[in-house]
Amino acid sequence: MPELRQEPITKKWVIIATERSKRPSDFPVRSEKRKGGACPFCVGNESKTPPEITAYRKEGTQADSPGWWVRVVPNLFPALKAGAEGQQIQNFYVSRPGSGAHEVLIESPDHDSTLEEHSPDQLRDIFQMWVDRYRDVIKQENIKYVQIFKNEGSIAGASLEHPHSQLIATPLVPPVIDEELKGAKEYHAKQGNCIYCDMIAHEIEEGERIVAETHDFISFCPYASRFPFETWIMPKNHQASFGSLDSEQLQSLTEIVQETMKKITGSLNNPPYNMVLHSAPSGEDNAPYYHWHLEVLPRLTIVAGFEWGTGIIINPTPPESAAQYLRETSIQNNRAKEELVWQQIH
Fold first, then answer.
1. Which residues are marked as active site?
2. Residue 43 and residue 16: Cα distance in Å, rounded?
3. The domain at 42-337 falls in which architecture?
4. Which member of 22, 96, 140, 338 lies 3.0 to 4.6 Å from 119 by CB, making a disulfide possible if both were Cys?
């Protein structure tokens, strides 16, 4: 029997279409082929990108040269950029200058590596760079929100194969985050608690939607999942801003992301996916009502006419079934490859 479920924070509805229920083997296998050719993100092609903003690199090597293992550059075709001036125009329509920032975080010199295949040390450094760039950009003038995200596969929006993520900083709080903030504030005003903290406690108590768990983090398929195998990763202790992450938490985040992504990619034949960070806006680092988190959104289904017309998304895979399948998926560790790549880039 189909079921309507309401997401408790934003109050949006989804349909869990159990009669259309799909297992991992029912979804199409990703069949993208490596294009090859000159890649601007590969070692030796540093001159093909804008000048680097920062990098983790071997001692003695120069900026915009080989020797790096994580590198950040401005996006060559920025959605927003610094220096856009002018006043907000407000009559019947509203517009404002497209000021902000748009950066590319090149995750590895290895063109063919994927997030879950990185060595633990490399993955930790990738997330350390996320934290570093988040902290630096969020304090810049006129920046209200910093969005970090990763598109894996062309269906998910990746225009280049080389492993990378992106940062876009906006002069306003995006509508999705604004909806979460409003829902979280309302819950906190009524209950005196963070709704995300209560959600974590509820998921741990029920257990059926949990995918993985460490001392500091939990990953689970949310109750009102919009997409098959949608997975959220959250710190167990209250923390509003991603920029507040400390070194111990960073290590724990690395572990749970790697475990979770190995389960997702291993069980779903390396699906295209989006990974998005939700964090508190500028000035709300210590908000008692908000809780930063990662959302992993496998792109296994198509958002079609009903979804666009109503805003209600149909999910053919119950999150309880998805979580059980992911929990029971054994992780194939290829530590030999991980360590070889790590040694090569250092």
1. 164
2. 45
3. 2-Layer Sandwich (3.30)
4. 338
